[in-house]
Amino acid sequence: MNNIFDSEFLRKIEQLKINSRVLMSTNGSGNRKSRSKGSSVEFSDYREYSSGDDFRRIDWNAYGRFDKLFIKLFMEEREARINIFIDTSASMNWGTPHKGIQAKRLAAAIAYIGLANFDKVSILAVNEQITSSRKSIHGKAGFWQVLNYLQDLPFTGGTTLNKAIREFDGGGAGISIIISDFFSFDGLKEALKYLQYKKQDIILCHMLSPEEIAPSVGGSVRLMDVETGETKDITVTHSLLKAYQKALEDFTGDIKKFCFKRGITYIRLSSDLSMENMVKMTIGEKQ
After folding, report:
1. Which residues contact 242 (CB under 8 A, 6 or more apart)?
2. Are residues 92 and 64 in the same domain?
3. pTM above the 0.70 mark?
């Protein structure tokens, strides 16, 4: 996992910023501009230096007085709170390329961008509940915490996103990015309403494998639900594949329509896309 990104790729994504339509936290430094009054050159406050902070912001006069490193803060600059929910249910443990691994890579890339822009990043693993998390990571040095955490995440259990995401306690306005196949037993819409109530700007990354988007199987096959273990024997015909495609389009279309009405960003991703394109699609950059 630690070798997923080479230095050239990291340099590219470091220049990108996650777009947001909501007012961010009024605490911290960050590179994001808030809607509060003042200009980026209007001095506001100090905070103690943390590993990964821009050394150009260090106030050396304050260091001479207090023998500690302090960073200058400015009125218009605010940090964003970026919350990355990654689906670690058993249904993500499948596909070629493996959609769970691609989800981890995308989560790591988004986290890197946030950390490089002095935002505060939290990652939450969800299946039937929030199984674990790493919260309030900041500074580029924290990227290694992200990689180590994601590397060890297992894909197990069922998916109940409405229930799991409603365990999220918020912590202020921010950006919530959900990376999942959205095969959730209890749906998704109530979770999205809850996140908006918590003043989250939401981005849905709908991660599917090429086999799920366009199955190439035929004849008699046995299907198994990887989350429940249930099996079903079917004969795959042309008409059945057409029915599957319609069901998939209805499924994704319903999510997309709901998101459009609520002002939520919806992106459908195939796990065989390049990671650079996945990142650009997620943060709204032109490909």
Report:
1. none
2. no
3. yes
Last residue of some domain: 17, 45, 75? 75
Same domain, 57 and 115: no
Would you list the DSSP string of 232-258? EEEEE-HHHHHHHHHHHHHHHHHHHHH
Q: Is residue 4 scored above 70 in pLDDT? A: no
Say whether both 119 and 59 belong to one domain: no
CATH number assigned to the domain comprising residue 147 = 3.40.50.410
List, for residues 187-212, the tens digit of each pLDDT value.
999 999 999 999 999 999 999 999 99
Residues 101 and 235 in one domain: yes
How many angstroms separate the CA atoms of 287 and 279, rounded? 10
Say what angle helices 7-14 and 99-116 make with each other, to 10 degrees: 60
Residue 15 lies inside a defined structural domain of this protein: no
| 85 and 71 together in one domain | no
Helical spans, DSSP H, in the chain:
7-14, 60-66, 99-116, 143-151, 161-165, 189-197, 210-213, 238-262, 275-283
Cα 219 from chain centre: 38
Residue 16 covered by a domain: no
Range of the domain at 120: 81-283
Between the CA of residue 194 and those of 31, 125, 169, 226, 262, what are the distances in Å?
Answer: 27, 17, 10, 28, 12
pLDDT at 2 over 60: no
Same-domain pairing of 115 and 209: yes
| Axis crossing angle, helix 189-197 with helix 238-262, rounded to the nearest 10 | 20
pLDDT in tens, 111-170: 998 888 888 999 999 999 999 999 999 888 899 899 989 988 999 999 999 999 999 987
